[in-house]
Amino acid sequence: MSERFAERRVVTALFVDVVGSAGLTVQLGPERLKRTLDRAFLELKAVITAEGGTVEKYVGDAIHALFGAPIAHPDDPQRALRAAHGCARWAEDHRREPVPLAVRIGLETGEAIVDLGAAETEHQQMSVGGCVNAAARLQQLAEPGQILVGATCRESTAEVAEFASLGEIELKGLGRLPVWRLVALTLPRAGARVPFVGRDAELDLLRLTYRRAQSGRSVLALVSGPPGQGKTRLVDEFVNGLGVEVRVLKARCRPAGERGARNPLQELLSTPGAEASAEDLTGRLAGLFNDATERHRVFAALMHSTGMMVNQELAALPTGQRQDEIANGWRRYLGALVRERPLVVWVDDLQWAEGEVVYLLDRLTLAAGMPALIVATARPEFVKQGGLRPGGDRLFVTLDALDETAARTLAHYAGSPETLRIARAEGNPLFIIELVRARSLGPARDVPITLQGVIGSRLDELPPRERELLQRAAIVGEMFTPRDATLLSGRDQAEVAGMLERLADLLYLHPVPGGYRFHHTLVRDVAYGRLTTAERMQLHARYAQDGVLPGDAEALAHHLWEAIGPADADWVWDGSEALSELRAQALAAHLAASRRCTDRFAYERAVETCQQALRFATGPLDKARVERAIADAYMASGDVDQAWGHYLQARDLHREGGADPPPDLYPSLLEPTAYRPGMFRRPPNDALIEAFAQEGEDVARRARDAASLARLLAIRAYRSHDVAQLVEALRLSEEVADPAPLAFFLGNAAIFQNRVGEFAVARRIYDRLDAVATASGLTDRHLEFRAILALNTGRLGEAERLAEQFLVASASRGPHLRTHAYREQCHVLLARGDWRGLRELAAETERLVAEHPDTAFCYAVTTALGFAVVAYALEGQRLDARTLLTQAEMPMQAEPFERESVLLLAFGVMGERDQVERLRERAISGFWFFRRMEAVVLTIFERWDELGEVLRPLERLAEKGNPYLEALVSAIHEEMAAARGGQKPAHRMLRELGYLGWSQLLAYRASTL
Are 859 and 819 spatial neighbours (Cβ–Cβ below 8 Å)? Predict the structure, then answer.
């Protein structure tokens, strides 16, 4: 490969025009004039090159020079200004000679494309950029003897020069820009800065947080500061001082598309010398948890949150519950590690982390009660926008710059043979170190202008082949493998290996397991930034084709985006036959990456990836695929309003493209309206829902898609409480060969059948779901609702066993799902008449809610508190019952019907007749369990004349062979007969089944209170 290639550089362009030559032509004649100008150009060139500049070319009577190419220096703008001042002084010295000459000078700093091949040879047209044009215009504007500079150059040299502002001036082709005139050069202004080395105070703060964690608290320390300020070094010093007895888990967050990017949680599970794997984690958890169920829960949470495995059980949960489960799994895992020895979790560069990772760290350290310390580093902007909530166990450490004394000390330790004047380093440790390492520094007055300039000067110390290798390897990211470097450089593998070793010896790179890492993020950024737009895009395309690991959809999407996503791709790939194929690949890659992000709960990233995918969509059908993916991401995140809008856009785009939408789009659109209506902020109206349901059915029938049609009929049944439609939906589902995709539909169908009293059908559905329980991940859901089904059909022993099994399994669950198990226990305890057990379970529920204020709980909490109200009331403790009833009334998420049936019973035992009537008015007649509560409350109130109508549907269900309902109806009839002078109720059937609590409730009278 040729060593002549163009780079994108930050340069300072200098134009020096020799004034007066036109008038001298007549006086001197052309031959003598040429000799005079040649001598002037030669002497001016010497002034320029003495400061490190390169004369690019001569344009008439003007010299065009560059500072920053082909060799960059840390202080190129200052060098250019000194050269300009030297040229002006040269003209002043020759003012009284027989042939007087003057100069007009213009300078500006900025980005330009530099042809390094031309720079090394003919020096013709070696640079193109806005700063070059600006410098030329400033030179034309200047008066003889003046030096005019643009805004960037002036800002870069403000500490070594005095300027006079000329205000904004119109520059041809560039518009109105601010212009300054150089008045004089001055000495650099040294200034004291804030500390850097010897950060005793910051170290003491981190040690304090560690001691606080050891006292039994979960603590988060966030160290913030700009790039290169020493955040990582500070934490490294702290960690190394803890001793070998402390376990340290470390992870680094990286931008999208890089190796290991957006997957820091996986690093926390890795062991020295080996990446995390399912096998390794399985073995590790076996040594930490004796209980197999807890071990399974923790394994699922860790694997799913790291992206190593998709767990369908977690994926099926609503967003809040899923986040709760993942946080719970990590909390248990880290808690188990803490039991072995002290633990510190170190997460670097948190500003690159996805919101889900930040949310998890927030949950792990806010009132978690786990004796562990999490230390994170981040850039300053993260502190304001990162989403970490304030709390007593949060410590924010801000790293300021070094003072001059500390900076000099650091420079000495870095190997400086003499004291440097490093005021312009502004106390940035990396800046100082890179300054010392830059061998090309001149006298002490050569102060670097920016950290990027210092790094650029170090890069230019390298031979062109090694510099090119670094720049091309930067395509991959901060970390890369020898294979990556070989692929992108096009060089021999052995040659690349040798060059990488040398670059590591020179501290441009650090060896890491499996490859190399740039010495610092900014080293990579400067190297990457020097690639031209065209070369950068082509290299990203090459890496996408041959470098990305199989299955890494997010990295593939990232590199294809960088290859053809930006607007510059239109001219870079103009006329290329590869462009259409790259666009198709990019569209597919972005959709796959979006699905992957959705699977691991990175919803914002999923939507962002889809929005990028729209760049590659070539027609309405492509756009429809993208809109569908966006809708799926929003749906998974729980934002059903956004999902609704994007599903509709996908539908309309399919129509625009002349095709029916995919049949499964319609149930995806409509299922929230049936199963999660409370999640809408702006619910769609019923007429619109019905219209889309009908349209979806038509599309599904035309496509002969039984699965989608079954889901649609179930939605209609759920919304209208029409059992016939649900029966048809279940019949259609039998035609589907693989029922796993229908698990969600079948689970809801079973719940619906249980509600309307079709207990036999519900049981058959659960039996069918058993066949796909492993694939669908609904084992716990089976336990939960099967327990209720058993309880509703007189099988109290089975219900008790399932509820207990569910409770044991939930012990390793997060707080939200733990309350689901409490809910089933409450139903069993109420049936048994275990009032003490209900009171204790309510107290445990209150404790759980109080300890997790950031968890969104559902109506299961209402059940626990409402049934405890019943327990207190039946035991005569009305004051306690009244206090608890107030808490039970608080709004909760999800299913209103059971919540209202529980409250109906609680208000009934408390004699709250108005509240009872309010709830009765809102009742849904088809749901027998509400009618059951209504019948019991009417019995408590002795409203016998109203009981007949309420009992009839219960009697019909009892006739189908339901022992529990048969016993309950019989006991109510006994109460009615006793009130009319009959025998004292015995409730024999109810008591023989074990439902002592229902017997006591039917014998209770609110009027006796």
Answer: no
From the CA atom positions of the chain, what is the Rg in Å?
Answer: 38
Which residues fall within 8 angstroms of residue 761, CB to CB, at 6 or more apart? 727, 730, 753
**Res 2 pLDDT > 60:** no
Task: Label residue 581 exposed, middle or buried (CB < 10 Å: 0-12, 13-18, 19+).
Answer: exposed
| 8 Å CB contact between 963 and 794 | yes
* pLDDT tens digits along 545-577: 999 988 889 999 999 999 999 989 989 999 898
Nearest CA to 599 among 322, 332, 329, 327? 322
> What are the backbone dihedrals phi and psi of residue 845, each rounded to the nearest 5 degrees, phi first?
-65, -45
CA distances 558 to 619, 632, 708, 786, Å, are 22, 21, 34, 46
ω before 985 within 30° of 0 (cis)? no
- Give the list of residues 6+ apart from residue 67 with CB closer than 8 angstroms, or none: 11, 12, 14, 51, 52, 53, 54, 73, 76, 77, 79, 80, 83
> What's the half-sphere exposure (Cβ side, CA atoms, 13 Å) at 354?
24
Residues 208 and 221: their CA atoms lie apart, in Å, by 10
Residue from 190, 194, 193, 192 nearest 160 by CA: 190
CATH ID of 217-290+337-398, from 3.40.50.970, 3.40.630.30, 3.40.50.300, 2.130.10.150: 3.40.50.300
Angle between helices 482-489 and 493-505 (to 10 degrees): 120
| Separation CA 864–CA 826 (nearest Å) | 6
Is the distance from CB of 651 to CB of 668 less than 8 angstroms? no
Q: How far apart are CA 127 and CA 109, in angstroms?
A: 13
788 CB-contact burial (10 Å; exposed 0-12 / middle 13-18 / buried 19+): buried
Per-residue pLDDT of 603-659, as tens digits, reads 888 999 999 999 999 999 999 999 999 999 998 888 889 999 999 999 999 999 999
Bridge partners for 135 per DSSP: none
d(Cα 340, Cα 490) in Å, to the nearest integer?
50
d(CA 961, CA 965): 9
Q: Where in the chain is the domain with CATH 3.40.50.300?
A: 217-290+337-398
Identity of the residue numbered 285: L
Sign of the alpha-carbon torsion through 554, 556, 562, 568: negative
Structurally, at CATH architecture level, domain 6-185 sits in 2-Layer Sandwich (3.30)
Torsion sign over Cα 120, 123, 125, 131? positive
Q: What is the DSSP string of 884-898?
A: HHHHHTS--BS-HHH
Average pLDDT, the chain: 84
Interatomic CA distance for residues 207 and 241, integer angstroms: 9
Show Cβ contacts of residue 598 under 8 Å, excluding neighbours closer than 6 positions: 606, 632, 633, 636
Q: State the pairing for strand pair 147-149/394-398.
A: unpaired
From residue 847, alpha-carbon distances to 27, 320, 659, 815, 844 in Å are 102, 19, 55, 10, 5
- For residue 859, give the nearest of 800, 902, 804 by alpha carbon: 902
pLDDT value, residue 408: 76
CA angle 384, 387, 389 (to 5 degrees): 100
Spatial separation of the C-alpha atoms in residues 455 and 71, rounded to whole Å: 12
Please, where in the chain does CATH 3.30.70.1230 lie?
6-185
Q: How many CB atoms lie within 10 A of CB 215?
A: 8
Residue holding tokens 């105070």?
Answer: 201
* Phi, psi dihedral angles at 79 (to 5 degrees): -60, -45
Could you give the C-alpha distances from 621 to 580, 581, 618, 703, in angstroms and in order?
Answer: 16, 17, 8, 18
Nearest to 267 by CA among 357, 336, 356, 331: 357
Cα 53 to Cα 84: distance, rounded to the nearest angstrom: 11
Give backbone dihedrals phi and psi of 444, rounded to 5 degrees, phi first. -65, -25
